[in-house]
Design brief:
21 strands, globular, single chain, 473 residues, 24% helix, alpha/beta, nine-stranded mixed sheet
Length: 473
């Protein structure tokens, strides 16, 4: 007799973890109350390959890699240069792209503008499951994203979406968003693990069969991760993350996965009343426009992918309100743990007495600085604020600070200095031996012919030497 418990299957609604016994806590993501009973999948009986019986097994003949025509996978530009930079040149026919981001960051606006540009060379189908067609038209009127070959359909059923694809025959399909599309006959609520997996698999099959470029809009969780099963990111060809502070104008597109291009590129956009505008040179957004020097500020150069960006770090050091009140550490655009570590290094290794002071650190323009190369600029800004002395001259600081107070080498120093030189900076504080360290091979970019060399490049080995070079001590 068959065991009745063997016919039950339980699945986590958040991560897709499966078990044959119900539990209150998911064994995969450790979430409580997310394990629900799901339908047991039907197992097909294993059969011998058709080749055993003399039937065909392969649908096409295997070719040497040198004879494969690569033109079918060539990228087609969208018309948005910053988006094409991240995609590796444009959209590839048959590729499935997942674009995720927080609500209100501008995902729909970006794809609507890209769809309008692509529609100049062929039909584009924009399927919206969150808005009506009239609401999408209002946004298109506001941003100027209009085109006669741009078709809008407000649908939430997978069968209706596929029917529109057959009727329009587009070269680009945009689904906004994949969490709102429902596959009839499949268990689970809209946006659940089972529904997202089935909908994505069906859309991928159509994309591969018809060489249809498909862009799926995905939601993110409160932790910033892409919502839905982790298998969703493995299924698609490209995973893009659209990020930005809703109180700032800067928006960035990062490639987390790309089978057709690099994953270290970043596209920068400015969000305004007229939509999104590409920023080929966004460094000016992250620097203050004052004409005088203020204590507690320092400029650094961060690498966003392959692109160097100038950014300014601002700090403020103030005495605590009382001896019994613990000091505050407030950050904006910086890693709080890293700022706390640098504060401790300054206190212990450089005799900068800020342990019992409130420390405030922030960036300009909504940019987030997370790489270790910005440590030196944070340390110099904090030392400048504590001593109430401004950093002398137009100085840019690049380097990682260790717990022993040493300044470590970072990759791409030559590219960072070249960017600072282009924007008028003539002094730089960098780790010792940067020309022979990681990224030192392109040192000729700084001292090459036709460029004005930096008047002062100070190499330092410790945080004390860096403070002396920056504050003139």
């Amino acid at each position: 007799m068959s065991n009745s418990s063997a016919a039950a299957l339980y699945r986590c609604a958040d991560c897709g973890w499966q078990t044959r016994k119900w539990t209150g806590r998911c064994g995969g993501c450790q979430a409580w109350g997310t394990v629900e009973q799901a339908a047991m999948p039907t197992l097909a009986r294993t059969r011998l390959p058709a080749a055993r019986a003399g039937g065909p097994l392969a649908s096409s003949r295997a070719l040497p890699i040198t004879e494969v025509d690569a033109r079918a996978a060539s990228a087609r530009p969208t018309g948005l240069d910053e988006l094409d930079r991240v995609l590796g040149g444009g959209l590839v026919p048959g590729a499935v792209v997942l674009l995720a981001g927080e609500p209100g960051v501008g995902k729909s606006t970006l794809l609507l503008e890209a769809g309008a540009l692509v529609s100049e060379s062929g039909a584009v189908l924009y399927v919206t499951g969150e808005e009506s067609a009239a609401q999408v038209r209002l946004r298109a009127d506001r941003t100027g994203a209009l085109g006669r070959n741009l078709f809008i359909a407000a649908e939430t059923e997978l069968s209706a979406v596929l029917a529109h694809v057959e009727a329009v025959r587009p070269q680009l399909l945009i689904v906004d968003s994949v969490q709102t599309i429902v596959a009839p006959g499949v268990d689970g609520t809209p946006g659940g693990v089972t529904q997202i997996r089935e909908v994505t698999s069906a859309l991928m099959a159509v994309a591969k069969q018809q060489s249809l470029t498909t862009v799926l809009v995905g939601h993110v969780t409160k932790d910033g991760a892409i919502a839905g099963p982790r298998a969703l990111e493995h299924l698609v060809d490209v995973v893009l993350h659209f990020e930005g502070d809703r109180h700032a104008q800067l928006r960035m597109v990062r490639a987390l996965k790309n089978r057709f291009g690099p994953t270290d590129e970043v596209g920068c956009f400015e969000l305004g009343e007229g939509g999104l505008t590409g920023l080929p040179d966004p460094s000016g957004l992250f620097l203050s426009q004052r004409g005088f020097h203020v204590p507690g500020t320092c400029v650094t150069v961060t690498l966003e992918g392959r692109r160097p960006l100038m950014a300014e770090v601002q700090t403020l050091v103030a005495p605590c309100a009382g001896a019994e009140i613990p000091p505050r550490r407030v950050t904006s655009g910086l890693d709080p743990a890293r700022v706390g570590m640098i504060t401790a290094v300054l206190q212990r290794r450089a005799d900068v007495k800020i342990g019992r002071h409130d420390v405030y650190a922030a960036t300009i323009g909504g940019v987030r600085l997370s790489e270790p190369a910005v440590d030196l600029s944070i340390a110099l800004a904090l030392a400048s604020a504590a001593a109430d002395l401004s950093v002398a001259g137009t100085v840019v600081a690049v380097g990682e600070v260790g717990l022993a107070g040493e300044v470590r080498r970072v990759p791409g120093v030559a590219r960072r200095i070249a960017e600072a030189q282009r924007l008028g900076f003539r002094r730089a504080i960098v780790p010792a031996g940067w020309a022979t360290g990681p990224g030192g091979a392109d040192a000729a970019d700084v001292r090459g012919p036709g460029q004005q060399a930096l008047t002062d490049v100070r190499e330092v080995t410790s945080i004390k030497d860096a403070i002396a070079a920056a504050l003139g001590g």
